[in-house]
Specification:
The protein is an alpha/beta fold. The chain is built from 36 helices and 24 strands. Helix 22 runs antiparallel to helix 26 (715-740), helix 30 runs parallel beside helix 31 and helix 32 (869-876) packs antiparallel against helix 33.
């Protein structure tokens, strides 16, 4: 309390309040009815200080507050802010939120479907839209101050993740980046990368959930707490949480009921007792049915709830089971309100389509407060479910795991039926990260006091394993970045091949593969900037000083080389002379500590026996053992003989000589001085330098004297700059060699892609050809195939519906491969064009194999899938929804999503196709109009 403060403390607090009032954060905080959390304040303060931020916090914790503060800062500073999201539904939701706060004039929206007020200071967009703007050098980037990347952990996505890294790498340095992520276990590593490529970045990690989470297991009629005492409610508290012993006993009992062959040897009475005990146990333990679970949650006051079922069919079946069980979660007023909202949102859908879409069964479930939510549903239906759930009019949703990564749709409780899901290849246990994402929906901030995660009892469930899932926050961010053909031509067009390669080396993928390469690449870039400055410093008005410096350097290198050759030759001569020495030779040691007269006791030839020890070898040549005139016995080395040595005289060494005896050494040294003390050794004549007669040196000296820069008054000043340039260039090349030495780098993949594109005439060194400029406009998995089809005129003369069928093969991928039956395709020209597309793909596939471009690594062109061609052709030919869906055997949601993707690629083709002597661009636009009708036109989510 303020009255408890000392005058000094009160003064300090008043100063702190006044200082805060002077910041942009103070008026921003007043916009909210609730106070900001410490991590939100910390992130906002870092933003206002000019730093980038990475905020990693649990789902529902309010990370977007930080993004909204970036919007506030941009408006305050008269700059722009782009708010990017991974999916159109999130973009639409955030656009509506910002319009409500700042008005429609200040906020725009850019998605694949909508373009609203794109020149506004605040624009909400999907990440792909921003990536395309960066490559196109859009004028909309002018004045951009902040970019918010919501759900930045999407960069782990195998198909789309590369887009996030492209944006982060290519954004201008003047732009402040706000990255908002779910709780990830390697936030610091990701922050380090952002710090490397974007500059000063503050990493703010919040582990605490805004609403405490309680973990349960529902077995039979009983709801067990997973932990005996949840002191930190599913967070990372310091205290150790023990698994509920009742739950462990239950698991042991269940496991003990498994068949044991030794039971056959037990008596009949024991077996009867076991069976009776099992019957009693079974009456208390079972996996509750779906309606039973909802009724139990309702009775406990734990609705609304999301039940995650890892199958679309399972979600629909769950709704039907609840209907058959007579569940009603809404009162009469709620039912009327649901019908009113649903009818308003679906008014534009024709009655005949409503029947096909199962509208009336769907509406009946909604009126009872029950719904499914999965990707197979019509997008409009999904949006209605989301709206009703947020309003509290739908209280039980059965959803696939895609909801966990989607829009803001929190519940009081989350139910997991199983801890195993199909991952596309096999049934696998869900990971701790997936468990955290799924249960993160439990607990609505400002509404619920606590959230609840309920796992249904299944035979074989291990409470210890479940506790590990619930207590571990391991959701590592793994880069999925891979160069593509489109990326390659766009980069080369903008930066040139060499610079593009360096940019790719700074990707998060490369950072994770080898963190050192990112630092080296940045150093190379800094060195290249320094080289530019040095090049200016050595500029001479008389001529090319770089050429002159190279001549001087070549001369110096040649002189150094000859000097080394001379030294090596002298060492070889000296070694050869030492090998000729024999015991009793009197020599003169030319240099070193023992220079002077010496008597050879042992020539010390390599690879012999010394002191009785085999294998003692002198790797640097002979090492003679000598007696000096000063009575010392020493073993010399080749370094003591820089010049050849010759025997001056011969002496007999007494057989009784003992080198360890001082008397023996004194007598022999005295005899040595008497025998040869009067001899003056011949001074070794210095050999004529090899440089004197070297033709190359003569040529270089002549060229240097003849060079215009030789007469420059500032020659030596320029030479100093040239020497610095050379040293930095040499260091840079060493760094580049270190980068080259790394295996499996992103840059190597880029090199292979560039080589293939050069072969196909999309690139010529740093020049992007007309073919390449066309490819630069085509984004998608089969970008190169689409470009080749345009180049070869495969789609010329096709009708709009036929073109839609062909383009569908570029985007469609069947959920499960079915090679048993060939897909139905349109006849005539469309069939021939589809066959030609497959033939071109075969040629590209062979080229990719030749250039070692591996599809298994996420690079290259997969085979076109013809499975949606007939549905696209029928819909573009104005067939009814009933007929198209019946023949396609496809859920309405999937059909709409694939149509949206075909429309998107058709738009790209219309922009990339030749404008003259071609029907493709015109018919692509007609195909878009033909597809964009009915359920496809009024579905706002792609």
């Amino acid at each position: 309390m303020t009255e408890d403060l000392t005058p000094a403390e009160a003064y300090a607090a008043a100063r702190a309040r006044n200082a805060e009032q002077a910041t942009a954060l103070a008026p921003f905080r007043e916009m909210y009815e609730f106070g900001l959390d410490p991590f939100q304040i910390e992130a906002c303060q870092a933003l206002e200080a000019g730093k980038g931020v990475l905020v990693a916090a649990p789902t529902g914790s309010g990370k977007t507050i930080v993004g909204e503060f970036a919007v506030h800062l941009a408006l305050t500073q008269g700059r722009k802010c782009f708010y990017t999201t991974p999916i159109k539904a999130l973009s639409n939701q955030k656009y509506a939120d910002l319009v409500k706060r700042y008005g429609p004039d200040k906020v725009g929206l850019l998605t694949g479907d909508n373009s609203v007020n794109g020149d506004a200071p605040i624009v909400v967009m999907t990440t792909e839209v921003l990536r395309n703007m960066l490559y196109a050098g859009s004028q909309a980037l002018s004045g951009l101050g902040y970019v918010v990347m919501d759900e930045v952990h999407y960069l782990s996505d195998r198909f789309r993740g590369a887009v996030w890294e492209e944006v982060i790498i290519h954004l201008p340095e003047s732009v402040t980046l706000v990255s908002l992520s779910a709780t990830v276990s390697n936030a610091e590593e990701f922050g380090d990368w952002l710090d490397t490529v974007r500059g000063d970045t503050e990493v703010i990690v919040s582990e605490s959930r805004p609403v405490p989470l309680w973990q349960h297991v529902l077995a039979g009629r009983r709801m067990y707490d997973l932990f005996e005492e949840e002191t930190d409610h599913g967070g990372r508290g310091a205290s150790r949480r023990e698994v509920n012993p009742d739950l462990l006993r239950l698991a042991r009992t269940e496991n003990s009921r498994t068949y044991n062959p030794r039971d056959r040897r037990r008596g009949k009475m024991i077996r009867e007792a076991d069976r009776e005990r099992e019957r009693r146990q079974r009456s208390r333990i079972w996996t509750p049915g779906r309606p039973e679970v909802i009724e139990r949650l309702d009775a406990e006051g734990l609705l609304p709830a999301i039940t995650f079922i890892f199958s679309r069919a399972g979600c629909e079946a769950a709704v039907q089971q609840c209907l058959y069980a007579g569940l009603r979660l809404n009162d009469d007023a709620g039912r009327l309100r649901v019908r009113e909202i649903v009818e308003a949102r679906t008014a534009s859908i024709p009655d005949e389509d409503l029947h096909v879409l199962g509208y009336y069964e769907w509406l009946e479930a909604l009126e009872r407060g029950i719904a499914a939510h999965h990707a197979g549903m019509l997008p409009t239906f999904k949006e209605v479910v989301e709206e009703l759930f947020v309003r509290g009019l739908v209280k039980a949703v059965f959803a696939t795991e895609t909801l966990a990564l989607g829009i803001n749709m929190p519940a009081r409780s989350v139910v997991l039926e199983k801890l195993v899901k199909w991952n596309g290849e096999q049934h696998a246990d869900i990971t701790p990260g997936e468990y955290t994402q799924l249960t993160g929906r439990a607990g609505r901030r400002g509404i619920d006091v606590e959230g609840h995660a309920v796992v249904l009892w299944q035979r074989g469930l291990d409470p210890e394993h479940l506790a590990g899932l619930a207590g571990t926050r391991t959701y590592p961010l793994r880069s999925s970045f891979r160069p593509s053909y489109n990326m390659a031509v766009n980069l080369v067009d903008q930066f040139g091949r060499h610079r593009s390669r360096e940019l790719l080396e700074t990707s998060f993928a490369q950072f994770q593969a080898d963190r050192s390469v990112v630092g080296i690449s940045r150093q190379v870039q800094r060195n290249e900037e320094g080289l530019e400055g040095y090049r200016e410093g050595m500029t001479c008005h008389l001529g090319d000083f770089e050429e002159y410096a190279r001549l001087r350097r070549d001369l110096k290198d040649r002189e150094t080389e000859l000097a080394k050759q001379g030294a090596a030759q002298r060492r070889a001569q000296a070694a050869a002379s030492l090998e000729k020495l024999k015991p009793g030779d009197v020599i003169h040691v030319p240099t070193g500590k023992f220079a002077g007269l010496a008597l050879v006791l042992d020539p010390g030839i390599p690879a012999g026996r010394t002191n009785g020890h085999r294998g003692f070898e002198h790797h640097d040549g002979p090492r003679p053992l000598v007696l000096t005139a000063e009575r010392q016995v020493k073993r010399l080395a080749s370094i003591d003989f820089p010049v050849p040595v010759e025997a001056l005289e011969r002496m007999r060494i007494p057989k009784t000589f003992n080198p360890r005896s001082p008397q023996s050494r004194r007598d022999l040294a005295s005899a040595l001085r008497s025998k040869a003390g009067h001899i003056n050794p011949d001074r070794h004549r210095k050999q004529r330098s090899g440089a004197a007669d070297d033709r190359e040196i003569a040529r270089l000296r002549t060229a240097i004297r003849a060079h215009p820069c030789h007469g420059c008054d500032e020659r030596e000043d320029h030479a100093r700059w040239a020497e610095r340039y050379h040293r930095l260039q040499r260091d840079t090349r060493q760094l580049e060699r270190r980068i080259e030495g790394r295996t499996n780098t992103i840059a190597r993949t880029f090199d292979r892609i560039v080589a293939l594109l050069t072969e196909l005439d999309y690139l010529r060194a740093d020049e992007v050809t007309d073919n390449g400029k066309r490819l630069a406009r085509l984004y998608g998995e089969l970008d190169l195939l689409a470009s080749e089809c345009l180049r070869e005129g495969v789609w010329e003369g096709l009708a709009p519906a036929e073109l839609a069928a062909c383009v569908s093969a570029l985007v469609f991928e069947a959920r499960q491969a079915d090679d048993a039956v060939a897909p139905k395709v349109p006849g005539g020209q469309a069939k021939a064009a589809l066959g030609e597309m497959v033939r071109i793909w075969g040629r590209l596939d062979a080229l990719e194999e030749e250039f070692k471009i591996n599809q298994a690594e996420g690079v290259g062109q997969r085979e076109p899938d013809l499975g949606f061609a007939w549905a696209a052709y029928q819909w573009a030919s104005d067939k009814s929804l009933d007929e198209v869906l019946r023949e396609a055997e496809m859920p309405a949601g999937d059909f709409v999503r694939w149509c949206k993707q075909v429309i998107d690629v058709l738009g790209q083709i219309a922009a990339a196709a030749p404008k003259e002597n071609s029907t493709v661009a015109k018919n692509a636009r007609k195909a878009v109009d033909a597809l964009l009708r009915g359920v496809v036109a009024y579905s706002s989510v792609g």
